[in-house]
Amino acid sequence: MHGHRGARGAFLSSVEFDDKGWxxxxxxxxxxxxxxxxLAAAQxxxxxxxxxxxxxxxxxLASEVSWSEEWIRTAELNENRAxxxxxxxxxxxxxxxxxxxxxxxxxxxxxxxxxxDLLQCAVDGMRxxxxxxxxxxxPAGQVLSIPWTEEVSLQACYLPSAFRDNAPxxxxxxxxxxxxxxxxxxxxxxxxxxxxxxxxxxxxGTEMALPPERLEGQKFExxxxxxxxxxxxxxxxxxxxxxxxxxAWSSSLVARAAASDTRFAAAVCxxxxxxxxxxxxxxxxxxxQEQTRLIDEPNAISRSIDCPLLVTAGEGGWLLPGALIEFxxxxxxxxxxxRLILFRRAETAAMQGHIDNPTLANEVIFDWLEDxxxxxxSLS
Length: 380
Prior knowledge:
alpha/beta; 8-stranded mixed beta sheet; 16% strand
């Protein structure tokens, strides 16, 4: 690609690479991070490297719609391949292509701000492929509607365990603006191989899924109690072994949920770090003459989480490694079973949300969940 001026007026050069070898575009950190996520998804079967680079070669960064158009084009190619494989009885190949299509459709829907018709096409395609994937799975998955408020139900995808009749469940929650379908591509294989059931939830979802004006005054962490109520009555679920995993943890939403409901058997989240960081940030700006630490101590959220707790973070993330390590040490002093794992740049998975190597982080997370949910003992 040749240098040109983008639609927002910032000069966008041809693809550049940072000191870790990742592609980046000055002035478009959103697209840079999104492409890293798409490329890294290849490790989990959520994309192919060649398709990622081929799609990128067609994108005109000067156009506000080219990004979405080209990822939709690649997604539809995978969806058509999946549909044909399914008709021919090649279910494994069909499922693989539907998973890749989910990733590419999701890429077309991110970042937000593109034409509404393209966003609608991307979201519809993502959900269509997820339904096809769930239907073809053995045992088949389900798209669920879980009651929350009088006007709003939580949308979720449920993937039952392939090995157990009374299975532990991992509830995966995305951050605001994420989609439950993307979480299938990220976590389904890790849960399946360990005999875990998986529930991916649109909590805040997107504006298309849960209009913000309809949720005014709602405490989002309380929604997770409704999820637990639903799962506790669902056949095939071990309601004493329901764990919760926050995807990317750029807020303390899941930590607050784990603190407010003691039924969770384990939690992977930020333990309230982000809430503490935000308070510290505002305090420093409100009282600049006072010296305030980035993270003073584990806050009320982390002190209230009673179940086993895991925090994973990257050395190259938004918070300083030294502060994270100190927070982890303090967390160990107040919690009966808490651990903070910091991924260093030398081993990768060190970016915010582990987007540079989700596989490495997910292996650590799901191994920890196996231990805390007693799966290794029950399989021995």
